[in-house]
Amino acid sequence: MARYETVIGVEVHAQLKTESKIFCGCSTRFGVAPNENVCPVCSGMPGVLPVLNATVVEYAAKMGLATGCTVNPISVFARKNYFYPDLPKGYQTSQFEQPICEHGHVDIVVDGTAKRIGITRIHMEEDAGKNIHSAADNASYVDLNRACVPLIEIVSEPDMRSPEEVVAYLKALRAILVYLDICDGNMEEGSFRCDANVSLRPVGQRQFGTRAEIKNINSFRHVLKAIEYEVERQADRLDDGLPVIQETRLYDATKNSTASMRGKEEAHDYRYFPDPDLVPVRLDAATLARWESELPELPEARRARFVRQYGLSDYDAEVLTAERDMAAYFEACAAAGADPKTASNWMQSELLRELNQAAIPISQTRLSAANLAGLIKLIDAGEISGKIAKQIFPELFAQGLDPAAYVRQKGLSQISDSNALESAVEAVLAANPAEVEAFRGGKTKLMGFFVGQIMKATKGQANPGLVNELLRQKLG
Amino acid sequence: MTISPDAVAKVAKLAKLRLDDAKLERFAGQMDDILAYMETLGALDTTGVEPLYSPVGHATPLRADTAAPTCTRDQILANAPATDGQFFIVPKIV
Amino acid sequence: MSDITALTLTEVRDKLARKEIKAAEAVAACLARIEGTEPALKAILHLDAEAALAAAKALDDAGPVAGQRLWGVPVLVKDAICVKDAPTTCGSKILQNFTPFYDAVCIEKLKAAGAIILGKTNMDEFAMGSSTENSAYAITANPWDTAKVPGGSSGGSAAAVAADQCFAALGTDTGGSIRQPAAFCGTVGIKPTYGRVSRYGLVAYGSSLDQIGPLTRTADDAAAVLSVIAGHDPRDSTSAPREVPDFEAALAGAVDLAGLTIGLPDEYWGEGVDDEVRQACAAAVDTAKSLGATVVPVSLPHTPYAVATYYIVAMAEASSNLARFDGVRYGYRAPEAQTLEELYELSRSTGFGPEVQRRIVIGTYVLSAGYYDAYYRKAAQVRRLIRQDFLTAFEKCDVICGPTSPFAAFPIGQMTDDPLQMYLSDIFTISLNLAGLPGLSMPVGLGQTSGMPIGMQLFGPAFDEAAILRTAKVLGAALPPLPRPAGI
């Protein structure tokens, strides 16, 4: 298989987080009863006409600006004509020859190697409704709630050479969409959909091989598995001297294989032409400049800054910037005085564990960043031991408590007063003369025993460092 | 150019029309005349002429992104040939 | 009663406003006239007498409202335009049981102005035709000679107005479908500038060509109706964001054509026009001169390419616009369909008539892979040249003038076997839709040979409906009035 090079291009459809649909005022809210968010326009009734949602244009342009695209000053909606029950007008209003954005890129890192993946174009279009197939009766049920929901389609150059690169690209793309707050980026729920175009070519050949389009990929894990399967399938065919057929294939997660849709789908001639019901979209330089200035710090820039500003490792920076809320929490924690590295460690271990157990996102935690910073500062100041901090963390998390107040209230302060400790140390030594003698006789391992006893006597609150020092003094 | 009944059938399929042989023959003949007439445009030199797809001269009309219902589901389904009160129903899509 | 239906719209409107007659009387007069003429005419697909009388009673109870320009005036509406809770069939079987729950914007405006909608008029199926013979329901007769066509596709509206069934009727014009039937039936008919009247609620045929406009007896009547239905509509993206002049005010006091320059395009006054048409139109131009107008020759050199251009564009757009008629959400669904494929194919093949199917097939063809550049894109380029012809001509004149049709109304059945012949007869009306400019047809007399009405067109620059309405008003007043139609 090292004879072939894998070439992959990806098409992503991202549902935009607008209040209303792209061409009508119906709500885009999820979870309502079938056909409740429908009007004559989005159900393709006779005589209706589309009117473009301003926010859709803004979101599409911002995605282009965030990925280094040229935002075209003129872009045109076109009709993509085909028949399907979830497509009420018998055509999808999309963009064809003149999309809103072109020629951008996303930078990825795989196994330490950086690579730039090209974005060919980004265009606006409307979503179709949903067909629900009934196993029982010989019917399909059409729900048009999703019809006319705004999408942007992001088409990549065929620049990826492995399933890992595809996943890295998709994660990077999704992070930008989420950072811009224009898309939920949820693959399982369908607000972030991806189709992969996979082809092979003999190593060294310039010309691309025939590609197959893989659909129905619903998670990053599926991306890896589907592409791996498809690459092997195509390689087997080529090895056997058979051609790869240009077709659409559906990924089946239960069988971990792809199957041709060819029997179900005729060759489509979409007969694109400019939609005469819509006016070309014109964007002036001033508007684009304003939108550019409104872009937030994007994931890649934030990652680099975290490394620079907080001295974090690449790995830590990547983990913390994966979600915008996570990055914000970290920065708030650092701003409240926590040591960045420590904060990073606590967030990736204790906090993440509690969040997963409670099954809530970081935005919903009751333990504020200031609280976490407070806890870290208590440890740094020697107020409590790290061990006790870890013990009390679940309680702090569950109740959203101020650590300092909690420690005070529970009397958990680390005992760092030499005088107070000295009596405890002397008491333990006095109570265990045999061990003292054995230690002085050479059994230095008993140090742990003494420390343990003192910890027990002080309910774990003795400052371990100080205990060790006092023991050394007294044991000689 | 001569357009064959087969070519007409292909196009009819794209448009989800079912034409019997007699109709295909008749359409093919008529289309020949009509398309030949349309091809007279080919004689006109239009190099460098920007296509005019619509006479509209005004700027892109845009809508504010606010959601507002304009009708009920019952109204939407009122003209449906087959419905259960919630969905439009069609024969099973295979 | 018959005195009422003989009045013009502005005359009856004034009598209603002064309470000389009641709205109920106006409606009753129209209903009686309709009853007497419909068996021969078949202009109306759907009549809602009860609703009209109820609406009239409600208006009478409340009394005339000063701001409502069409208070109490009974009108008819072409069946391509959605009227809430009334059947809207577009003359097609595929919409035989479709009842919209929404009014077209122009209907909302008519109702807000106090007009009473009597019903829906017959038309060529989906506005595809020039004779109303393509209707799936009936063939409308020309009131001047019931063996002849009323023109199309707004034949029902034209016949109804000419036969005094109502005081105005709305039609639609994609390639001449208001103007040509107006000419054939001896009425005024105006196609506004593209974008002047909202298309929301008009079942689309050629989206970049369609406009709604009134057919009336006089230019003053047309001005009154146009003032009501015109205006920017935020629900139609192609609706022009422009103020609507008070067209009636623009016409008030106009008595001559001094200062007006009329352009006569060489291409409209040459070969291919019947003698009686040329004669009647030339006489009208002479009258215009005697009223003070200056006449200059102009040229619209790309006229020979207009029909081909129009049909490529219109059929392409139509093939896409009619895809929504698939039996899924409304309209006719073939009861014998077992599979989805059958549902689509049988519903559409049974529901659409042959002319509609022909245009869908050709439209699909000219958009299909490999042909788009040669046909559709090429046509769009020629369209720009055609529009440019008009803009250039309007540098030399204020309005352009020419015959509406090469011939007067022809016998029913004469042209139905030759679709291409039918398309070519649109030669004088079609360019205007491609250019998106306003134009009207006005009656200029009866043909010397046929005795049928002859119509003449006036075209204006974009959004200058006032100029052509004013010219039509003055010229119309100076020409001998037409007699009442002889056929009914």
Fold and architecture overview:
The complex is a heterotrimer of chains A (476), B (94) and C (488). In chain A, strand 7 (101-110) and strand 8 form a beta hairpin. The termini of chain A are far apart. Chain A is an alpha+beta fold. In chain A, the strands form 4 sheets. A 9-stranded mixed sheet of chain A has the order 3-7-8-11-1-12-13-14-15. A 3-stranded antiparallel sheet of chain A has the order 6-5-16, with no helix packed on it. In chain A, 40% of the residues lie in helices and 21% in strands. Chain B has 94 residues and is mainly α. Chain B has a domain at 5-42. Chain B contains 3 helices and 2 strands, in the order ααβαβ. Chain B has helices at 5-14, 21-38, 73-77, and strands at residues 62-63, 88-91. The radius of gyration of chain B is 23 Å and the shape is flat. Chain B starts with a helix and ends with a strand. The model of chain B has no long low-confidence stretch (mean pLDDT 93). Chain C is an alpha/beta fold. In chain C, 39% of the residues lie in helices and 12% in strands. Chain C contains 17 helices and 11 strands. Chain C has helices spanning 2-6, 9-17, 23-41, 49-62, 105-112, 155-162, 179-185, 219-229, 247-251, 275-290, 306-321, 340-351, 354-367, 373-393, 419-424, 430-435, 465-478, and strands at residues 44-47, 74-78, 116-121, 169-173, 188-191, 211-216, 261-265, 294-298, 399-403, 439-446, 453-459. An 11-stranded mixed sheet of chain C has the order 1-3-2-4-6-5-10-11-9-7-8, with helices on both faces. Strand 2 of chain A pairs parallel with strand 1 (62-63) of chain B, so a sheet runs across the interface.
Helix segment count of chain B? 3
Q: What would CATH call the class of the domain at 2-255 and 439-478 in chain C?
A: Alpha Beta
Q: Specify the number of helices of chain C.
A: 17
Radius of gyration of chain B: 23 Å
What structural class do helix, strand and pairing data of chain B support? mainly alpha
Instruction: Give the assembly state of these chains.
Output: heterotrimer
Q: Please, what is the average pLDDT of chain B?
A: 93
CATH architecture of the domain at 2-255 and 439-478 in chain C: Alpha-Beta Complex
Spatial strand sequence of the major β-sheet of chain C? 1-3-2-4-6-5-10-11-9-7-8
Number of strands of chain B: 2
Order of helical and strand elements of chain C: HHHEHEHEHEHEEHHEHEHHHHEHHEEH
Unreliable spans of chain C = none
First-to-last CA distance of chain C: 17 Å
User: What gyration radius of chain C follows from the Cα positions, in whole Å?
Assistant: 21 Å
Terminal residue distance of chain B: 38 Å
Query: Helicity level of chain B, as a percent range?
Result: 25-40%
- Write the CATH fold name of the domain at 2-255 and 439-478 in chain C: Amidase signature (AS) enzymes
Shape of chain C: globular
Pfam family, one (chain C): Amidase
Active site (chain C): 78 (charge relay system), 153 (charge relay system), 177 (acyl-ester intermediate)
GO biological process, one term (chain C): translation
Domain Amidase (chain C): 25-469
